[in-house]
Design the sequence.
C-alpha cells in the first residue's frame, strides 16, 4: 500500500506542473487588456497605460511572468486580485465553503437516487421501471443546466412559491460566519427559522447541479450490476438459497461499486464546472460565480489562482477515490 501511495504521489507532480501552465495560459489566451478593463470608462493615456503595465509586470516576457507565478506558489503567494486588491488565497477560501456545501449536497443527492435507481433497474431488467429510469437518465444528462435551472425557478419559485429564487439564506437572518457552511452556521446561530431558510435556498441549486451526475451514476450502476449479476459466484450464491436482498446487496453490489466509485470521483470535476452556471443562475456566492466574474474582468491573478486551486482539489479527490478502491475490494488493496 505504501508503494502504491508513493507512485500516486509521484504522478501528482507532473500533473501539478501541467495545471500551473494551463491556469497561467488560459486567461492570457482570452482577448482583452486587464489594465483597460480596470480603467473602465475613464480611459487611459498611452503613457499611463504603459506605466500600469509595468507596475503589474505585464510588459515583461511571458516566460518571466510564468516563473514569477510558479515560484510564488511555493511561498503560498497567488497574488492579489486586480479588482478587490485582496489576496487571491483569502478570497478563494472565503467563498469555497459555499461551493463545497452545494457540491456535497448535489453529489449526495445524485448518489442516493442514482445508485438506488441503477440497482433496481438492473434487478428488474427490461421492465417498465428499467426503461423509465434509463429514459429519464438520458433526458437528465442531455438537459442544459441553465435551461433546467430556469424551468425549476419558474415552476417552484414563480408559480408554486415553494422555494426562494436565489441566495443562501433569507435577508432577515444575519449572523457572523463560523465555518462558512450555511447549514452549520444557521444551526449554530440559534435563530429560529434560520436553518429551514438555508435548506429551502439549497433545494433547487442541489437538484440542478446534481441532475447530470445522477443520470451518469444511475446508468453506470445499472451497467455494472448487470455485468456482476451474470457472474458465476452470484449464481452460486443464489443456488445456496441466499435471499435476493443478500445476493444483490452484498455479493453483487460490492463488486459493482468499483466502476461506480470511479464515476463518482470523475463527477467532482463535472460538479465544479456545473457550479459556474448553477451559482450564476441562483446568485450563489461561491467559487463558480467568482471565477466567472474574474474572467469577464480579466482578473489574471484570481483566474489563474482559482483554476490552480480547483485543479489541486480535483487531484486530491481522485487520489482519495483511488484509495477507496482498496476498501471496496480487498483484492485490489492486496495487489
Sequence:
Amino acid at each position: 500500500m505504501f508503494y502504491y501511495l508513493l507512485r500516486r504521489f509521484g504522478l501528482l507532480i507532473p500533473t501539478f506542473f501541467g495545471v500551473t501552465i494551463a491556469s497561467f495560459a488560459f486567461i492570457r489566451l482570452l482577448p482583452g487588456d486587464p489594465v483597460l478593463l480596470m480603467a473602465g470608462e475613464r480611459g487611459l493615456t498611452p503613457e499611463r497605460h504603459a506605466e500600469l503595465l509595468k507596475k503589474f509586470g505585464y510588459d515583461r516576457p511571458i516566460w518571466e511572468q510564468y516563473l514569477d507565478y510558479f515560484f510564488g506558489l511555493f511561498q503560498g503567494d497567488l497574488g492579489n486580485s486586480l479588482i478587490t486588491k485582496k489576496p487571491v488565497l483569502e478570497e478563494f477560501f472565503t467563498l469555497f465553503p459555499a461551493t463545497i456545501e452545494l457540491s456535497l449536497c448535489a453529489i449526495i443527492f445524485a448518489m442516493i437516487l442514482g445508485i438506488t435507481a441503477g440497482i433496481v433497474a438492473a434487478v428488474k431488467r427490461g421492465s417498465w421501471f428499467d426503461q423509465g429510469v434509463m429514459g429519464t437518465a438520458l433526458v437528465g444528462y442531455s438537459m442544459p443546466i441553465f435551461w433546467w435551472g430556469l424551468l425549476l425557478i419558474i415552476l417552484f419559485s414563480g408559480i408554486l412559491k415553494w422555494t426562494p429564487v436565489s441566495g443562501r439564506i433569507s435577508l432577515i437572518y444575519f449572523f457572523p460566519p463560523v465555518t462558512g457552511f450555511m447549514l452549520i452556521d444557521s444551526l449554530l446561530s440559534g435563530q429560529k427559522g434560520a436553518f429551514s431558510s438555508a435548506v429551502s435556498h439549497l433545494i433547487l441549486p442541489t437538484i440542478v447541479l446534481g441532475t447530470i451526475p445522477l443520470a451518469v451514476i444511475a446508468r453506470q450502476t445499472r451497467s455494472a450490476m448487470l455485468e456482476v449479476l451474470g457472474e458465476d459466484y452470484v449464481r452460486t450464491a443464489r443456488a445456496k438459497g441466499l435471499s435476493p436482498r443478500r445476493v444483490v446487496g452484498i455479493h453483487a453490489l460490492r463488486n459493482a461499486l468499483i466502476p461506480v466509485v470511479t464515476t463518482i470521483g470523475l463527477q467532482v470535476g463535472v460538479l465544479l464546472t456545473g457550479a459556474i452556471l448553477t451559482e450564476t443562475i441562483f446568485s450563489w456566492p461561491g467559487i463558480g460565480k467568482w471565477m466567472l466574474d474574474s474572467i469577464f474582468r480579466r482578473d489574471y491573478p484570481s483566474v489563474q489562482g482559482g483554476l490552480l486551486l480547483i485543479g489541486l482539489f480535483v487531484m486530491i479527490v481522485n487520489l482519495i477515490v483511488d484509495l477507496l478502491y482498496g476498501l471496496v475490494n480487498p483484492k485490489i488493496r492486496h495487489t
About this structure: The mean pLDDT is 84. Residues 244-281 form the longest helix (38 residues).
